[in-house]
Design a protein that fits this description.
Layout: H1 17-35
């Protein structure tokens, strides 16, 4: 672990927050559909 963290790379977001939220909403809607909550 110490060797791995000697030169850490910063985390870089590859998607916008809006893209992430849209994808999450779509997944939650699909889960509701599967569970019969819709």
């Amino acid at each position: 672990l110490l060797r791995h963290n000697t030169k850490p790379k910063p985390f870089v977001w590859s998607k916008s927050a809006e893209d992430i939220i849209t994808r999450e909403r779509r997944a939650l809607d699909k889960l509701d559909e599967i569970r019969g909550n819709r």
